[in-house]
């Protein structure tokens, strides 16, 4: 999986330019859910920092990690105040953070280690937030064109969630796994729609 995750760096500048960022409402929801003030955060798979900047702009000391140094180079150029570390989740040593973030990247991590690693990175009373979601292209012709363009490189684009949760289920993955793990309490799912 890490090898495939490293393919983004070759197009890091384009990724930064064209990938959508995250709305302020997302940070409001995450920070509102936190059981205590959030001063430190670790972001797993930060890429070029789309989610990083949302939380860093709130005065949170964010450490951004990604296995691809080219992605972190773009992030560092945009957010020089953010600490970066070239590493996958599986490479991180346990260190307590108030908040651990995973923005559309958990499916790149090793399922056999995922929750042990995340739990080891959370300080007592810390918060874990995973977010991302489907992009639904409203124009059917454009949707077909995008699917054709992606097909040679992303053959599994419409695969179900990693644990087999069906699309449209009341709770989406990774929440479906988190509710079964006693280390994670008060699991919530919030949907923020935008156009």
Mind explaining what this structure looks like?
The protein is globular, with a radius of gyration of 17 Å. The model has no long low-confidence stretch (mean pLDDT 90). Strand 4 (97-103), helix 6 and strand 5 (122-131) form a beta-alpha-beta unit. The longest helix has 11 residues, at 140-150. The chain has helices at residues 2-5, 12-18, 24-33, 50-56, 69-78, 114-121, 140-150, 175-178, and strands spanning 40-44, 61-66, 83-86, 97-103, 122-131. The chain has 195 residues and is of the alpha/beta class. The chain has a five-stranded parallel β-sheet. The protein is built from eight helices and five strands.
Total beta strand runs: 5
List low-confidence stretches: none
Number of helices: 8
Terminus-to-terminus distance: 31 Å
Characteristic key phrases:
alpha/beta, globular, 195 residues, 31% helix, 16% strand, 5-stranded parallel sheet, 5 strands
Provide a brief overview of the structure.
This protein has eight helices and five strands.
What is the strand and helix layout of this fold?
Layout: H1 2-5, H2 12-18, H3 24-33, E1 40-44, H4 50-56, E2 61-66, H5 69-78, E3 83-86, E4 97-103, H6 114-121, E5 122-131, H7 140-150, H8 175-178
Parallel strand pairs: 1-2, 1-4, 2-3, 4-5
